[in-house]
Amino acid sequence: MKDSEPSGSAPFSAETYFATQPPPPSLDHDMATVRSFVRKQTERGMKVVLVTSGGTTVPLERNMVRFLDNFSAGTRGATSAEYFIKAGYSVIFMHRQFSLQPFSRHYSHSTNPFLDLLEIEHTNTNPSSPLTAVPNITVTPSKREDLLEVLAMYKKVHHDETMLTLNFATVNDYLWMLRAISHELSLLGRSVMYYLAAAVSDFFLPSQKMSEHKIQSGKGSLHIEMDQVPKILKSIVDEWSREGFIVSFKLETDPALLLPKCRQALERYGHQVVIGNDLHRRKFEVVFVSRNGPNVTEKASNTSNNNFGAGESHLSEYWLRLGTSDASASSLQHPREIEEDIVRELERRHQLWIDAAS
Ligand code: 9Z3
């Protein structure tokens, strides 16, 4: 959820949150896999990116029947993860259960159902024994080239063990996992990037206030008071992963709020980049907001169109847009995706961040 009326109760600090809210049951198991993955990538000298993707839920009951959800199909995260792999990163892909995933996203049930790729090849034409030969299943010739490309990359990633996939559902899962993963990733120093594209609820219902069973109707309207989720980004920047290159996303629906909100987030948390996107324009336009300095190179600052006031002149604004031919390229075999440009620009800035340390 995004901005709404303040409830009046004091916000949870990160410390209070983790002292009072229970960890997800799978946390220890997940962290053992993260630890071993990070160790392997360190030995190989790989850069690692944590991609968070999809929306978090806020359950209203402990035996959950109802929940609030944050909008996100997981397209941004899943698509970006593929481009990070192509750019030579190892990826921890932390995503909302059942949201889109790298590679399989190309064949999601709604856009490109995989059964439509397949054809049945009847080898036995004898009608008296229809069950004696099992027909072959083949891929429709016109779909083979695309499938082969995706499949080859998918297999390579599995073979090379360059991607680790983890699931979350609730905002509580998300917060616990992010904290624990940050601790592990902090060992990588500047080689790690955080790409926080998940749509995270600003509000939650503490477990102590949650109804045990399904909330019953029949008593008129439903009133629920939620608490504010602690500002976890601040903890990552200041405590858990001081050297990481941290990129957060800001989603707005009012275009007039996009830049001020990005700027506010950057000032508040002190990380490296905020990528702003408007809900309806997010697939072909984003804006990078960052501080001027060694991290923002000539290319970015020259192409920026800085609308900030005098007090914010230390901030740089860099718009990335797909051209009209790119954006309307759905008829092409390979429409361009803005995530390719986002990842290229971030890779460049991350390298400058790494180089700046030496
Ligand atoms: C984003 O802004 C993502 O780009 C989208 C991607 C959720 C718009 P899709 O998965 O959508 O491609 O369908 N993510 C961050 C959204 C968010 O909740 N940010 C918080 C905020 O804006 C800060 S963490 O306040």
TrEMBL record:
Q: Which domain of life does the protein's organism represent?
A: Eukaryota
- Record region (Disordered): 1-25
InterPro entries registered for this protein in UniProt: CoaB-like_sf, DNA/pantothenate-metab_flavo_C
What Pfam families does the record point to?
A: DFP
Source organism per UniProt? Jaapia argillacea MUCL 33604
Record family assignment: Belongs to the PPC synthetase family.
Q: Where is the DNA/pantothenate metabolism flavoprotein C-terminal domain?
A: 47-102, 177-283
The organism's lineage?
Eukaryota, Fungi, Dikarya, Basidiomycota, Agaricomycotina
Q: GO MF terms on file?
A: catalytic activity
Q: Which BP terms in the Gene Ontology apply to this protein?
A: coenzyme A biosynthetic process
Name the UniProt record assigns to this protein: DNA/pantothenate metabolism flavoprotein C-terminal domain-containing protein
